[in-house]
Amino acid sequence: GQNATYNAGHHGNALLSKFPLLRWENINVSSFRRASRSLLHAVMNTTNGKPIHIICIHFGLFGVERQRQIATLCDRIDSHVPHDAPLIVAGDFNDWRGVAEQRFSQHLALQEAFHTLHDRRARTFPSWLPFLPVDRIYYRGLRPLSCERLLHAPWPHLSDHVPMIATLQL
Fold it and tell me: Rounded to the nearest 5 degrees, what angle is found at the Cα of 13, between the Cα atoms of 8 and 14?
């Protein structure tokens, strides 16, 4: 999902899948021109034919901006994802205080994979000394088998965030 284009390239959200994507849409949730933000919503086919909805996000730095983006995400899920459909919402929430988590839990029945398995939030920023928990992998209709931070080379050198990886089972 391309969010911004520059002379030297572009940036945005990405979703890599070994299963075919049935459809996808990139929804602009930017509040400011200087910081392009989006929700990349895809529907992935699986080997058993049950589609999984996946939303990749990168939310803003300011609380007011994030509140609007959270509301847009909730509206999107309410209007486009059946309540019984498996769902993954992952990315940089920039929500180090965990404000979104209560709303996601109560309104969308989402749980956070790292918190479920380790009873704490994953610290992922900055990658050279991670102390802020800003990246999350939320799910519903799936069972988390593992969720870890990729702390060893080359991963922390590829981004200013420590990447996370989760294994979820239908």
Answer: 100
For residue 104, report the phi and psi dihedrals to the nearest 5 degrees.
Answer: -65, -40
DSSP state of 59: -
Order the strands of the 135-140 sheet from edge to edge: 21-28, 38-44, 52-58, 87-92, 135-140, 111-112
Residue 148 has which token pair? Answer: 């870890």
Residue 126: asked if its preceding bond is cis (omega within 30°), the reply is yes
Tens of pLDDT, residue by residue, the chain (170 residues): 655 555 676 556 778 888 889 999 988 887 766 667 788 999 999 878 789 999 999 898 888 889 999 999 999 999 999 999 999 999 999 998 888 888 899 889 999 999 999 999 999 999 999 999 999 999 999 999 999 999 999 988 888 999 999 999 98
Q: Cα separation of 60 and 63, whole Å?
A: 8
Enter the tokens of residue 141. Answer: 């209709």
3 state SS of 70: helix
Decide: helix, strand or coil at residue 86. coil
pTM of structure:
0.91
